[in-house]
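so my prof wants the structure for this chain in the tokens format not the other one, which i didnt know existed until like an hour ago. anyway here's the sequence
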Amino acid sequence: MADLMGLVEQAVVGLGFELVDFETSPRARLLRIFIDRPPVEGEALTKSAITVEDCSAVSHQLTRVLTVENIDYDRLEVSSPGMDRPLKKLADFQRFVGYDLQLKLRLPEIGTASTPQRNFSGSILGAADDRVRINTESGEREFALDNIDKARLVPKF
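here's what i got, hopefully its the right format
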């Protein structure tokens, strides 16, 4: 699985995109790839940066790479991460400072009311040293990156 992910990431990055997420079904029969444009310093973030043509180009390249590498699969899906983009790496949190997110922790944290809490919503304040800071309704919170199970941007309409 790690080799497959590395292979996919190398192909995606080689085409000038960023691998946001990689999912497989049991026995890797379905490969689901989410791509985005890497951030460019000094440019504003765009919400609709990935086009159907981008997904098609990545799909065609991955099909060739997976065939050459003799990777057996039934279906390959390539798409944009969407407006509720998952945040996985420290760089993702740094890139989206100021954006709203929802996150779920692997292990609950004891809040001020001594009630274990795993789900949080707020805006991203920053990320450094494998820690993520967010501003919630109850104030500023900080979490270890390795304790974050899932984090997604909250789209604004």
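also thought this was worth mentioning. Helices lie at 2-14, 52-68, 90-95.
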